[in-house]
Amino acid sequence: MKRVNAVIVGAGAAGGIVAKELAVAGLSVVLLERGKWYTANDCRKDDLRNQRTTLLGNAFGPEDDGNPRVWVDAKGASHTALPSEGSYQNDAACVGGGTLSYGAQAWRYMPQDFRMRSTYGAPAGSSLEDWPISYDDLEPYYEKAEYEIGISGDYSGTPFHGPRKHPLPMPPLPPGREFGILEPAAKRLGLHPFHIPMARNSVPYNGRGPCMRCRWCVGFACEVDAKNGSQNTVIPVALSTGNCELRTECMAKEILTDERGHARGVAYFDETGHLQEQLADLVIVSGCATETARLLLNSKSRLFPNGLGNRYDQVGRNLQGHHYTGAVGYFDFETYDDVGPGATIAITDYNHGTPGLCGGGMLANEFIRLPIHMIDRLPEGTPRWGLGHKQAMRAWHKRCIQVFGPTQQIPTADGRVTVDPAVKDKWGLPVVRFSGNVHPHTFEIGAVQAKRAEAWLKEAGAIHTSVMAGKPELVSAGQHQAGTCRMGSDPKASVVNRDCQIHDVDNVFVIDSSVHVTNGGFNPALTIMAVAYFASDALVRNWKGTGFRG
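Above: the chain's sequence. Below: its structure in token form.
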């Protein structure tokens, strides 16, 4: 194959942006994606087979056959999980990655989220640290993501956000019934409710129409292409330059290195299962926190016997996601209006500033609920099946509101991804192995957040409430996974530098959520995109035309 300037592994939120930025700058790019390029036509509205309800498999990959993972429970016992099982900790495997099917909340982190250790100190047993970059460093790239990807919403109702130069490019979607119920209640409590920022067209934008407000949104592909991800924004731009080639159904095996320790390309299995080598001047890994760590750990050689970038055993550590907590309120009147996406109103009053807590998280009403989503949201004591269950569904499905949010998770060095010594996938590659527990302070934060959600619902008129603030045994690495290749200035305590360049190899970059030092109290998609723009900018500036010099 013809040598190119850059090969990128993963066509998700970050990989698509990097491909676009490099291709527009004139670099030749090959973009490898292990999944397919799906459209809404490929994905029926199946309540049991989507990215959130995987009882019958994943609509956007990976498929069960040949894609196991291993997790280690609190007692040290190993269990193998398939993609249709919750413990698999799945993210979509397709062009666009999670941005094809996500709920599309598009939050900026707050300035404090980049300075967690300086702000709060590090709880005992945690690996809480500051980022080597600040909110101010990322602010112009947040704005670039908001305008190029396309974000709707309105921050004007709250003072709790970082400084910004311009408003969002699109107005919010019209408020739903739940917004009208929750907004006055929040104001009576002295809170500051506002419209959620969404990577979703509220008006025609960039040649695509607005959201049609259907109920099949989060977990599904948008049939009118109004939900904005890399697959319908930056990747088409990259391809239109003529400098980028997208290859789908290509599974990366390892990053190839030469006798000096420089990367020379990527070995991968193509759509027919044949092993190929794509040589390149640069390698960018954008596979998500779990799969990126796996690829680096599987890229072993004489100079890197423990995996690429893993000289100090940092690859795979500090795995984190979010501990989702909140409450369900049950009302004596209908709250359900059958208008998607459902989630419309949020508060960020509780993300920081609570004495005794290291951060917090935003709280928002949940996405529109399909009947299957009510199974674990019915009042306590409801039978799991039979007449009593049916009666509860009829009574409460249209008369409840769910308020939840992503509690900032406190990272630990032992929450990690390794590769399993025995279990392999259908390509013969060692699979992801999860181990470690969630730091206990995360649950303390979550318990407070859940009670706050309950108080909001009670003020709104709920006659019954159910608080949901469990203590999951597994590390959290689902759709909000982050942290396995954290950025930092010390090579002994991080994997990449502030420009997302691996400390040990100057022509390999990791650009995805795995570089996040902390995960904020927000959905991470917009920060993944902002970091991708930030790192791409540095990469292009340092490109010398025939090679890269760090």
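The two ends are 26 Å apart (CA to CA).
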